């Protein structure tokens, strides 16, 4: 080299990458009449998110039954067996 330093500039943004994938197979064609569990993992704002989701689902599918459950610890699976037994599907929230 001629005595000058070479500085490499690296962008933290990275290159955008698009991946196409298929949705998971659907077990139910409609939600009306189903019992939907809302499992709050006891993290901040998970309850607010699930409340929003519950209201959204009720507005679109008035005949669904919502079953809300809040885990008392973040690590244990408390409430999962009960929800699995009593609900057709479960939405689990992780939030901060």
Q: Helix- and strand-based class?
A: alpha/beta
Strand content bin: 15-25%
- Poorly predicted runs of 5 or more residues: none
**For the report, how would you describe the main beta sheet?**
3 strands, parallel
Termini gap = 51 Å
Shape: elongated
In total, the number of strands is: 3
- Share of residues in helices: 10-25%
**What's the Cα radius of gyration?**
22 Å
Q: How is the largest sheet built, in terms of strand order?
A: 2-1-3
**How many individual helices?**
2
Could you give the order of the helices and strands?
EHEHE
Average pLDDT for all residues: 84
Summarize the topology.
Layout: E1 35-40, H1 46-60, E2 65-70, H2 80-86, E3 89-93
Parallel strand pairs: 1-2, 1-3
Model description:
The protein has 96 residues and is α/β, with parallel strands linked by helices. The protein has a domain of 47 residues. Helices cover 23% and strands 18% of the residues. It contains two helices and three strands; from the N terminus they run E-H-E-H-E. Strands 2-1-3 form a three-stranded parallel β-sheet, sandwiched between helices. The longest helix is centred in the middle third of the chain and has 15 residues. The protein starts with 34 loop residues before the first strand and ends with a strand.
Q: What is this structure, in a nutshell?
A:
By secondary structure, the protein is α/β, with parallel strands linked by helices. Helix content is 23%, strand content 18%.
List keywords for this structure.
96 residues; alpha/beta; 23% helix; 18% strand; elongated
């Amino acid at each position: 080299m001629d005595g000058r330093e070479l500085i490499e500039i690296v962008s933290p943004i990275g290159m955008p990458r698009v991946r196409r994938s298929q949705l998971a197979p659907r077990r139910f064609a409609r939600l009306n009449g189903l019992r939907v569990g809302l499992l709050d993992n006891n993290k901040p704002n998970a309850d607010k998110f699930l409340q929003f989701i519950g209201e959204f689902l009720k507005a679109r599918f008035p005949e669904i039954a919502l079953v809300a459950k809040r885990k008392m610890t973040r690590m244990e699976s408390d409430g999962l067996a009960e929800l699995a037994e009593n609900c057709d599907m479960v939405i689990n929230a992780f939030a901060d």
